Amino acid sequence: MSVSASPFLTGQFLLAMPGIGDPRFEQAVIAMCVHDADGALGIGIGALVEGLTFHDVLEQLDIPTDGVPAVPVHFGGPVEPRRGFVVHSADWSGQDTVDVAGRWALSSTVDVLRAIAEGRGPSRWIVALGYAGWSAGQLDEEMTRHGWFNVDGDEALLFDADVNARWLTGFASVGIDPLLLSTSAGNA
């Protein structure tokens, strides 16, 4: 199902359907940051990396943590799980920042981490390790099968919803109770 006329999902969220079949994506919420004819990249915002905080990340980079909240780090996805990303409000831009459909931004260089630590970064942000990636046409093909459901890129889901409730909140935003959905697709 699509909530947009565009064939691409940049600026939307992918919600894993019940029974997606890949334990890495059970109840996943993916903020789609890039999706075009060349492929897709999204950052998971529905699960946390256990035992890792933003302070830990800053300390590994020798960036002072004074006054910085020790928020958890999200599991961004299974690709390059040691690579960091910051999904953030569009009120800040730095080296290689990607505008995501005018809704939010994505940065993956250390300058955004320094800016946050120094109190001059984006007003809202989420730190994640890893990403979900698809080659050209792969996500488009996956969207025709049981597995993913896309919803509008509401900033409230991104920044305000509790991480443990994002999956349910994403479905509720379009009036769906995912607990009532089938865990498999049928054949006609």
From TrEMBL:
This is UPF0301 protein FHR19_002924. It comes from Sphingomonas yantingensis. GO terms for cellular component: cytosol. Gene3D superfamilies: VC0467-like (3.40.1740.10). InterPro entries: AlgH-like (IPR003774). Belongs to the UPF0301 (AlgH) family. Pfam families: DUF179. SUPFAM superfamilies: VC0467-like.
